[in-house]
Amino acid sequence: MTLSELIKGGAFLLGPVDEKDVFTPEEFDDIHLMVKKTCADFVNNKVLPKVDEIETMAEGVAVALLREAGGLGLLSSDIPEEYGGDEADKITTMIITEAMIASGSFAASFGAHTGIGTLPIVFFGSEAQKNKYLPALATGEKVAAYALTEPEAGSDALNSKSKAVLSADGKYYILNGVKQFITNAAWADVIVTYAKIDGEKFTAFIVDADSEGITLDPEEKKMGIKGSSTRSIIFENVHVPVENMLWKEGKGHQVAFNILNIGRFKLGAACVGGGKRSIELSTDYALQRVQFNQPIAQFNIIKNKIAEMALKTYAMESLVYRIGGMIDEKLAEIKAGGAESSQIVEAIQEYAIECSIAKVYCSEALDNIVDEAVQIHGGYGYSQDYAVERAYRDSRINRIFEGTNEVNRMLIPGTLMRKALKGEVPFMEAVFGLAEELKKLKEVEAPTGCPAKEEFLLAKMKKLFLLAAGNAAQKFNEALVQEQEILCRLADMAMEIFAVESALLRAKKILAARGEAEARLPMMMAQCLANDMIPKMDAWAGEIIAGTLAGEAAAKVFGGLKLLTRYTPINTYTLKREIADACYAGKKYFLERR
C-alpha cells in the first residue's frame, strides 16, 4: 500500500506503519510543556484545595473555577483566534484534557464545556453563531452543555422524541421534549440540543438556557463524579430563534456523531491522566505501607500490579497521542487548501475507528488500573479518606460516556467494512492475498532480537485479524451486522493491534532519536505488551472462527490460526519488576514529561 492509503482511518490493520509517521509525547515542544505546567499548577493549586467543596456541589465553586480556567486560556484551545480562542493543535487540547482528570468531578464539568458543549459551534456554527457564542465560551463567561440523551434515546440517539415546529410567523422553532443525564445542566448558559423538525428531521439547535419554558429536574444521585451537575432538561414550548438552528435542517446526526468522535479520543486522553494519577498514588502508598516487616512495594505481586498499571498507561498514552497527531495532520492538510466546514467534518470522520478505539481501550484500561490501585491500598482504598476511592467511582462512567463501549465496539469493524465497500481501504484485497502470505510464512524463520521479534508478531496479528474478519465478512455478508458477538471480538483484536503497535512504534522512535539507554524501558514495555497480546488474540480469533465456520472449512482455517499464533513466550516477570522499580524511583509514571 502507498503512504496515503496507510494513513487512512483503519488502514493500520492492513500493513506495516513506519514510526516516523506517528506523533509521540517525546515530541512535545516548549509550548506544549508550558501548557502542561499551567494545567498542572491550576489543578494542584486551585482545584484540588476545593475538591471537597466541589464534591458536595457547594454553590458557585465549579463555575468560578471554570471562569478562572478561562482566564488562563484553558477553555479556548479549540476555538479559532478570531472568536477569542487560541486555535491550538489537538495535541495541546489533549494535554489539557489529560491534566484535568486529576481534578476529579471538575474534569467532567470542564470536559463537557470545552468539548461537546463548545465544539458543535466551533465546527458547525454559522459566522453569526460563532461571533455570538464563542468569545463568551472561551472565557467561561458562559458555560455550555450538550443535550442529546433522552429517556428513550440513549445509544439510539436518532430515536429522539423531542420535536421542533416552526412558528406561524416563521421566526422561531417551538421546541418540546426531555433530555436526560445532561452534564452542566444546573449552571449552563448555552445548551446544544437536538430535536426532530415536524417530528421527522433530526436537527441541532443552540438554545439559550434562560429561555422561557426550560425547567430542570433535581440533580441525579450518581455513583461517581458527584461534584458535576447532572440533570434532566425539560423543554416546554421553548421559542428558539430560527437563526439558532445549528448546521442544516435534518443534518443533526452529522453534528452529533462527529462531535462524539472528538469526545471519544479526548476521553482517551483523560484516561491517560487517570492512569498516571493512580500510579502516583499507588507507588507512594506502597512504599510507605509496611507489612511483614517490609514495604509492600517490595513484594513481587505488588510490583506486578504497578508494572501492569504502567504498561496500560504507556499503551494508552502512545495510542491517543498517535491519534491526535493523525487528526492534526489531516486538519492541517485541508486548512492549507482553504477548508470548509464540510471538509472538517470529513477529516473528523476519517479517524472514527481510531477514536472509538481510544474510547473503549482507554476507559477499560483505566477501570483496571484504578481497581488495582484500590487493591494495593487494601482496606484504606475502600475509605473515602483516600483519593483512590473516588477515582474508582469516577472512572466507571467512562465506559458509558460518548456512546457505550458496546456500541463503539460494533462501530470499529462496522466502519472498517463500510470504508472497504466504498473502496477507501483495500480490505478485501488484503483478505484475498492472505493465502499466499500464509504460504510464505511457513518458510520464514522468526527473528529473536528486539524489536524485530515484536514487529514480526505484530505483522502476524494483523494477518490473524484479516483471517478472522475476512471469513466472517464472506460468510455473513450484510448480515454480519447482526453477529454482534463477532463484531465485538473483531473490535477487541483491532484495539489490541493498535495499542501494541502504537507502543512499539513509540519505543522505536525513542530508540532512533535518543539511543538505547532512554529506549530501554519503553522497549521493555513494548516487549511485554506484544508477548501478552498473542494468547488473547489466539482466543478471540478462535471464537470468531468457531462462530463462523464448521467442519472441514473450520479445520482448514484453524490450521492457519495455529501458524499465526505460534510463538515462544518471554520471561516478562523480570521485565515487569524493573518497570515497577522505575515507577518507585520517582513515585510516578516514569515517562511523564514535565
* CATH-scheme architecture of the largest domain: Up-down Bundle
How many helices? The count is: 21
Radius of gyration: 24 Å
Helix fraction bin: 55-70%
How large is the share of residues in beta strands? Answer: 5-15%
SS content category: alpha+beta
| Molecular shape | globular
Q: Kindly state the mean pLDDT as a whole number? A: 95
Question: What oligomeric state is this?
Answer: single chain
CATH class of the largest domain: Mainly Alpha
For the report, how would you describe the main beta sheet? 8 strands, mixed
- Kindly give the count of domains: 4
Give the distance, in angstroms, between the N- and C-terminal Cα atoms.
38 Å
The CATH homologous superfamily name of the largest domain equals Butyryl-CoA Dehydrogenase, subunit A, domain 3
* Spans where pLDDT lies below 50 across 5 or more residues: none
Question: Mind explaining what this structure looks like?
Answer:
The structure is a single chain. It contains 21 helices and ten strands. The chain has 594 residues and is an alpha+beta fold. The model has no long low-confidence stretch (mean pLDDT 95). It has helices at residues 3-6, 30-47, 51-55, 61-71, 90-100, 105-117, 119-124, 127-139, 252-288, 300-336, 341-350, 352-377, 387-395, 405-421, 427-432, 434-442, 452-476, 484-514, 516-546, 551-565, 572-586; strands spanning 144-147, 163-166, 172-183, 190-197, 201-208, 214-216, 230-241, 245-246, 290-291, 294-295. The longest helix is centred in the middle third of the chain and has 37 residues, at 252-288. The strands form two sheets. Strands 1, 2, 3, 4, 5, 6, 7 and 8 form an eight-stranded mixed sheet that branches. Helix 12 runs antiparallel to helix 14 (405-421). The chain folds into four domains: 27-143, Orthogonal Bundle (Butyryl-Coa Dehydrogenase, subunit A, domain 1), CATH 1.10.540.10; 146-246, Butyryl-CoA Dehydrogenase, subunit A, domain 2, CATH 2.40.110; 255-406, Butyryl-CoA Dehydrogenase, subunit A, domain 3 (Up-down Bundle); 424-586, Up-down Bundle (Butyryl-CoA Dehydrogenase, subunit A, domain 3), CATH 1.20.140.10. Strand 9 (290-291) and strand 10 (294-295) form a beta hairpin. It starts with a helix and ends in an 8-residue tail after the last helix.
